[in-house]
Amino acid sequence: xxxxxxxxxxxxxxxxxxxxxxxxxxxxxxxxxxxxxxxxxxxxxxxxxxxxxxxxxxxxxxxxxxxxxxxxxxxxxxxxxxxxxxxxxxxxxxxxxxxxxxxxxxxxxxxxxxxxxxxxxxxxxxxxxxxxxxxxxxxxxxxxxxxxxxxxxxxxxxxxxxxxxxxxxxxxxxxxxxxxxxxxxxxxxxxxxxxxxxxxxxxxxxxxxxxxxxxxxxxxxxxxxxxxxxxxxxxxxxxxxxxxxxxxxxxxxxxxxxxxxxxxxxxxxxxxxxxxxxxxxxxxxxxxxxxxxxxxxxxxxxxxxxxxxxxxxxxxxxxxxxxxxxxxxxxxxxxxxxxxxxxxxxxxxxxxxxxxxxxxxxxxxxxxxxxxxxxxxxxxxxxxxxxxxxxxxxxxxxxxxxxxxxxxxxxxxxxxxxxxxxxxxxxxxxxxxxxxxxxxxxxxxxxxxxxxxxxxxxxxxxxxxxxxxxxxxxxxxxxxxxxxxxxxxxxxxxxxxxxxxxxxxxxxxxxxxxxxxxxxxxxxxxxxxxxxxxxxxxxxxxxxxxxxxxxxxxxxxxxxxxxxxxxxxxxxxxxxxxxxxxxxxxxxxxxxxxxxxxxxxxxxxxxxxxxxxxxxxxxxxxxxxxxxxxxxxxxxxxxxxxxxxxxxxxxxxxxxxxxxxxxxxxxxxxxxxxxxxxxxxxxxxxxxxxxxxxxxxxxxxxxxxxxxxxxxxxxxxxxxxxxxxxxxxxxxxxx
Length: 735
Fold this sequence. Notes:
The protein has two domains: about 1-100, Carboxypeptidase-like, regulatory domain (Immunoglobulin-like, Sandwich); about 120-225 and about 235-735, TonB-dependent receptor, beta-barrel domain (Maltoporin, Chain A, Beta Barrel). Helix content is about 5%, strand content about 55%. The chain is built from five helices and 38 strands. It has a 22-stranded antiparallel β-barrel. Strands 8-13-14-11-12 form a five-stranded mixed sheet.
């Protein structure tokens, strides 16, 4: 007993003396003026603080090791500093004034670097910036990123499209784990609300090396809001109103952090009635969404862990034809009621010069669909789902794990090895069945290295994956794949950076493609699976050039993507229950295109910003016919003015014109789509109200009330227009 107590005392003393802290000052490079309220953040530890009125900061309770520390503040270029802890010398950092927006750390790639240090090009956008431009939802907001669009069924249902690839070819990550919510369904949305999400990152191109199957086309990575800085607490609430849908969303949150423990929570409610076009309201595009997020974190000098939970319930009308004209927010039949639970655990064990990351997740998705023949009156509204019987009900339960070991840095090499996997069960409870009961198991091994040189960075890696699918009927399928990636980033001139990446990716056929046998609501198709499908395998070449100085940014991206065994739907000319039958087929395919953009903020008019971007993608099968659901070429132009005064902070105003061209390169069962121009404008800023910050935004989209159809709208075959003019008024009040 005495020996045990002595050991505990020894451990306590060891812990006490091994706790480290750093301190220093942040100043302006040209004047040595000390910068107050600058952000100081260590991404690997997810720990940060701000400088005081004298530009001084302190961070304590830090583990031993080598870390990158970020220093940022609006109006200055973000600086990164590599530091070995413990460090006995105070840090002195100088920030250079710049009109360029603050640069963020990239979380979706394993080495967690600033974008300028990343070998792979990753797009990063803050949710607040997307909402300031009038986005009604997360799926709508990401379409402001060049090369990214959305397949939509009304406003409530949207799926990301990255360079022409969507559905199961784009993997979604939330809370650090892969989101599995029956995303194979064309009429099934993300199931994630933007409340409590801080930013989005998008990898455009195959990311199977990092994520395995289903990342063949790219990754949408959702970063949850950070915990509060040490020994601080904050809260806020806000709301938005949308004129076209007579809709609103509200949210409120609170977070607090002590030295070791921290927590946060946020709740939101969204309701929209049928959206309005110039001629009519689109019947049954109404929906209601409730969302709750919570997080609990713990950190000491050797270990950090956080647990997060997200509950999302969506009641979504499925539009079929123009009928009742109403501003009711209660969906008509048919509609979906989807409940999604996301549990995630994210832990790191610090081992001096190395560390071990362990991410665990459990997703429980309950999908119910109600159809008209299960109710006496097809047009009658309903207040309680319990009086209805779900025609289709599926429960999807997914456990996934991601374990990565960061080896000690060896010279210029940073290396990570890891294992990832997933166990998933699908169960049916309704009288109708689209896909059978089945169990899916994934397992993957990976290794990747980042090699640093003075003006050159190289990243390479390899991975093996296995997917096993066991169907209740006794059918078993097994898929294996080896994949790799190689990338190089070089500083060609002082302000010109070139990136060249080669990567392979794969996607095993999903359960719907293998075994589907039924009508998919919202798509007007009877789909029949093909149990003999092979895995898709692709190879993409991606080149990116980026020029950046204090007042001008220009980027040019180009890609060529070759896909073997591309899976697609094709009608066979038959009908079942008056619904056309579609079969899953395979053929080789190719996609190519790119993006171009510039951002100009001329001296001395640093408050004036002009942004422009162009995106194009072409997709073809081996027989030279075009792939379906390929977005049309488009150009976006934005003029933005930023200003501050004694009465307004972070003020801005903008005018945006997005021009979408005709889409004549269409699939066999598609029709051509006319081009159109959409004009948007808005302004906003922050005000001091009762000594707290009130942020107000006012924006208008489609201000000319243009009647148009987007090529990726699933309502287009029925001749239904996209949303008309809408005015969005929003506010957020910080406590």
